[in-house]
Design brief:
The chain is mainly β. It is 0% helix and 61% strand.
Length: 119
């Protein structure tokens, strides 16, 4: 069983910053990607930023230049530094961990953490 736990959400004013953290534990053998997705009310879940085991990161166009994802491979942890926050960034942010064992691939999600940007 795999546990994915997010932390660091909260309420912030426009232009402020937040740092989200994600820690994965349990039956994990080889993580090849960790990332953050978000879901606003009435909207579909969307990719925010992901990073692979080699450190290559991908960002949504809407956050590129404002958000930075990083990863500590040895600790199965990832962080998302969010700067210059906007009201459109308000959503529940979910950490996703993709890992494999042999030929089997798995995708596990955290419970989510609320980020609210107020005007």
């Amino acid at each position: 069983q795999v546990q994915v736990v997010e932390s660091g959400g909260g309420l912030v004013h426009i232009g402020g910053s937040l740092r989200l953290s994600c820690a994965a534990s349990g039956s994990i053998f080889a993580i090849y990607e960790m990332g953050w997705y978000r879901q606003a009310p009435g909207m579909q879940r969307e990719l925010v930023a992901v990073i692979n085991s080699g450190g290559l990161a991908r960002y949504a166009d809407s956050v590129r230049g404002r958000f930075t994802i990083s990863r500590v491979n040895a600790k199965n942890m990832a962080t998302l530094q969010m700067d210059s926050l906007k009201p459109d960034d308000t959503a529940v942010y979910f950490c996703n961990v993709k890992h494999r064992l042999g030929e089997n691939e798995y995708s596990d999600w955290g419970q989510g953490t609320q980020v609210t940007v107020s005007s």
